[in-house]
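User: Design a sequence. Structure:
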């Protein structure tokens, strides 16, 4: 049995967040270990799903991508720091302190700006001179066998080889400093809309098409395949996120 669904960017973020919260790695770390949710737009939805309450997601941003020449209104929001949970309970802890306490099996969540789905690589734009969140956390994540979970929407699919793009940027030593570097992530647990709906409902999911108009700009069209009960469960899940409001910026 087949089903098609179109998801706006906001609906995708909500679906991904639900999939991240239900992932076995995350569930295990919430029960027995440490979970760090780094700041970012998609991770704001992840934090809401895990905490079970709404938050001012506009205050949970680090970098952001806006239209060229953007001069529109910007809603002021009080900055919110990274969310750190030990055995499912929120702890008042800095990112640096949380990273220093990582152990095997713990989870760090960090969003991405680019995704090559076929290669299972993600790219993070870096403007901070010391590598930002990923630069501060990745060495410890790898050394201590913690897990890096990357919630990222299919809207961020790119046609380029991310490693080649990273090398190209790094080779341009005379270019403007405003060009962000690209940190390529491999070996992470990448969770898109595809993984999210499969984790929760057991259907098989494929990315069929993208884009639209009238509010569907940036949307993705998914094709779901499964038994009748699985499709019905997927329909209920997708109905529950229908009409998700655009990101509050």
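Assistant: Done.
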């Amino acid at each position: 049995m087949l089903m098609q669904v179109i998801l706006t960017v906001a609906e995708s973020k909500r679906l991904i967040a639900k999939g991240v919260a239900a992932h076995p790695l995350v569930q295990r770390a919430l029960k027995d270990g440490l979970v760090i949710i780094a700041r970012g737009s998609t991770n704001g939805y992840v934090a809401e799903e895990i905490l079970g309450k709404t938050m001012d997601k506009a205050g949970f941003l680090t970098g952001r991508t806006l239209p060229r020449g953007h001069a529109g209104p910007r809603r002021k929001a009080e900055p919110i720091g990274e969310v750190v949970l030990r055995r499912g309970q929120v702890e008042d802890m800095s990112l640096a302190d949380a990273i220093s306490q990582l152990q095997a099996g713990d989870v760090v969540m960090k969003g991405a700006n680019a995704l090559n789905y076929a290669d299972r690589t993600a790219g993070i734009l870096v403007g901070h001179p010391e590598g930002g969140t990923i630069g501060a956390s990745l060495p410890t994540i790898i050394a201590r066998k913690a897990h890096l979970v990357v919630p990222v929407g299919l809207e961020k699919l790119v046609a380029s080889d991310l490693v080649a793009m990273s090398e190209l940027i790094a080779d341009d030593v005379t270019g403007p400093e405003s060009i962000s570097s690209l940190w390529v992530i491999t070996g992470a647990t990448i969770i898109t809309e595809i993984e999210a709906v499969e984790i929760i409902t057991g259907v098989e999911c494929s990315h069929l098409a993208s884009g639209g108009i009238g509010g569907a700009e940036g949307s993705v069209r998914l094709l779901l395949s499964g038994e009748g009960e699985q499709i019905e469960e997927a329909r209920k899940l997708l109905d529950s996120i229908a009409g998700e409001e655009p990101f509050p910026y």
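The mean pLDDT is 93. Residues 107 and 147 are 5 Å apart (CA to CA).
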